[in-house]
Amino acid sequence: MTRVKRGTISVKRRRNVLKQTKGFRWGRKSKERQAREGLLHAGVHRFNDNRKKKRVRRTLWSIKINAGARINGTTYSKLINVLKTKHVELDRKILSTLAEHHPAVFKQITELATKS
């Protein structure tokens, strides 16, 4: 029977793990077992921190919309309520961008919302 040399797949897998742990500290960047452990924890932290980042962004959007609304003579809650009742389909991300970078357009939206 012919000889089968093994290990190419496992070596490739190990190399891939070590490539992913580039920049980790101490043995987690160079030792395979510690690198695997580090990757597991890194994935968990990444998922949780991405959720936290989104949470922080949403609060910032609300703060920016409220600031823009108060400049134009209304409040955040009143503005959002009127936009919902009039079926204006602008999400908070877009509204905050308009309030921050395009105050004239945001003023038109608040005027449209407060009319009637």
TrEMBL record:
Signal peptide boundaries: none
Keyword terms: Ribonucleoprotein, Ribosomal protein, RNA-binding, rRNA-binding
Biological process, per Gene Ontology: ribosomal large subunit assembly; translation
Gene Ontology MF annotations: rRNA binding; structural constituent of ribosome
A GO cellular-component term linked to this record: ribosome
Family: Belongs to the bacterial ribosomal protein bL20 family.
Job of this protein: Binds directly to 23S ribosomal RNA and is necessary for the in vitro assembly process of the 50S ribosomal subunit. It is not involved in the protein synthesizing functions of that subunit.
Protein name per UniProt: Large ribosomal subunit protein bL20
